[in-house]
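Homework help thread (please don't just give me the answer)

Our assignment gives two proteins as sequence + structure token strings and asks us to describe the second one. The first is just a warm-up. Here they are:
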Amino acid sequence: MKIKKNIFKAIVSLNNKILPSLIHKDPAKLTKTEKAILGYRYWTLKNSK
């Protein structure tokens, strides 16, 4: 399990550098693509902990 967490931590670090930050946007007004990015970022963050 430790290897899996380390992989996800590396992915989260990469996501923070590459993917756009959506913190200042209203979740109700996000496009489908932005919702997918937000969901992916959440999924990787939850798996890294």
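The one we have to describe:
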Amino acid sequence: MRLRLATFSIAARDPATGMLGVAVSSKALAAGALCPFVRSGVGAVASQTYVNPFLGPVVLDYLDKGLTRTTPWSRRWR
């Protein structure tokens, strides 16, 4: 049997306190240095597969402007 390894990410918010957290587990060495992003009062995101360390801050900027995960992609990337 062949062992399959993958990346797992989780981002969460405690509704009682508003505290945010994000974690990444991967076979890739030091993935936690490039994948998770958190901004106080804004949100938490994690990138996966092909890590783009510039994507996290861009997504947090969008969240800070009030865009959500349900905002159409065509509006996000203007």
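TA reply:
I won't write it for you, but here's a hint about the kind of observation we're looking for: The first strand starts at residue 8 and ends at 13.
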